[in-house]
Structures
1.
Amino acid sequence: MNAIDVRDLTRTYKSGAEAVRGISFSVPPGQVFGLLGTNGAGKTSTMDVIAGLAAPTSGSVRVLGHDPIRERRAVRHRTGVVLQSGGLPGELTVAEAVRMWAGTMRRPRPASESIDAVDLTAKAGVPIKSLSGGERRRLDLAVALLGRPELLMLDEPTTGLDAESRRSVWTLVRGLVDGGTAVLLTTHHLEEAEELSDSLAILHRGRIVAEGTLDEVVATYRAEIRFGASAGRPPAGVLADGEAVEIEGRHVVIRTGSLQRTLGRVLYWADGAGLALPELRATPASLETAFLALARGTETLEAAS
Ligand SMILES: Nc1ncnc2c1ncn2[C@@H]1O[C@H](COP(=O)(O)OP(=O)(O)OP(=O)(O)O)[C@@H](O)[C@H]1O
């Protein structure tokens, strides 16, 4: 059974804002599903429905086979959630807060084990209000881990964490996933999505615009060759159909579905013309390329062909 099944989900706010406009995806056990997107794309609106905090406007959501609102009791003990606003009382110490949460669970891990898993043992006696932003984020994660969840929902879990803490959270998440936990992850850190996601979807204005494994998503975007505009555009015949050439600022930019072939042609042209291509750079497609293409409103290769 899938940890999450989302079918034709929409969510419209009272203001009329259509935050989610008909999305479907599934997350099997033991996998990380990355939900990515531009600001306001609908990630948090989707996560809230899956976490049982809001009802869908239409469509259906199943979490571990259950309706996350109507069958909340069946779901609550089997899931862990890290949302953007962790709401633990600031007067309590780290250890007190984690023990308090453990008291509400059926078979919690020992509080010290959860605290240790997020490297907060040295801060166990410190009041939450004195923690740094990154330490609070790790405390939220410690609480989410307490119930040995089958599904972890992580909404931007490493925002505000330094590079070392971020990596230790990644290692922790991968360890849980190797043990069979499913993870729904939203993040603005593309490196994090690349590092953790077994599959991912990119949301844009409430719709999924790209979905699949990292390789599948990236393969639908174009690689880029760029060099100084002083060299001029390659003449007709150098590039194949469907390869776009533009002048962007001081650079000639060529976007292509076949980096090796196009680069070969460009270099052959430049050699023949006795041109040195200033600041030549060839960049394969990546999640970053995909995002920049979204921001520019550029079509994917599939849509363009
Ligand atoms: N409570 C609300 N009332 C009305 N509109 C809302 C509400 N919450 C979010 N929205 C709108 O819904 C859309 C999606 O917002 P959402 O927070 O789900 O996006 P997001 O992908 O999580 O964004 P970000 O990356 O900026 O956190 C946005 O246009 C936002 O303005």
2.
Amino acid sequence: MSATDPVKLMKQEVGRAAAAKVKSGTIVGLGTGSTTAYAIEFIGDRLKAGEIDNIVGVPTSFQAEVLAAKYNIPLTTLDAIDRMDLAIDGADEVDPNKNLIKGGGAAHTREKIVDSLADCFIVVVDSGKLVDRLGSTFLLPVEVIPMAVTPVMKAIAKLGGQPQLRMGVKKAGPVITDQGNMVIDVKFDQIDNPAELEATLNNIPGVLENGLFVGVADIILVGEVKDNQPSVREF
Ligand SMILES: O=C[C@H](O)[C@H](O)[C@H](O)COP(=O)(O)O
């Protein structure tokens, strides 16, 4: 990836824009993925520069915990708080109604818990993540308890989905989530009713959580780039 890689420029710019919305004395959900990683870095930069202080983060993954430690952002847990002021997180697809597919990094279960508890959930994406209809470019991740992988795949096939077990890269065998579970990625020809599908999938015994986020996001920050100049649009 070159220094002027347009996707990198867009991710950095939305990360910076999201970090700029963090105020002193707030509790912030820290999402997962390459775009949110920039937001965490820029929050750390603002803390270091003294622009903000007294921030506490709630991590959505081991990756977020590691980044928070790297940038000296103190962390807390959901046992210690009732709510968050803000959550910042990426997405794999965003539709015009601000509904999302998440879980490209297998973190969607903890992300849905944290992002749902925030007063304001800000999504940070590059413009390539915008779709007219969810499921058109990205397979839908479903986290499953390991002993239930086969029956869940059969149940998903009966619903019309094409399931595949997510395999590791630079690791033999399946991807294991931060909770010790596996991920089934599902191709649906068409997702007409995301809310209904979200509930139907979660109702299959053995499914922990799927990557459909319906009615959770408040603000979408979209990174765009033209002539190597990045900008951010909000909706
Ligand atoms: O499980 C991972 C998350 O849902 C990520 O937020 C999502 O995959 C987007 O990641 P990235 O910003 O790297 O495209």
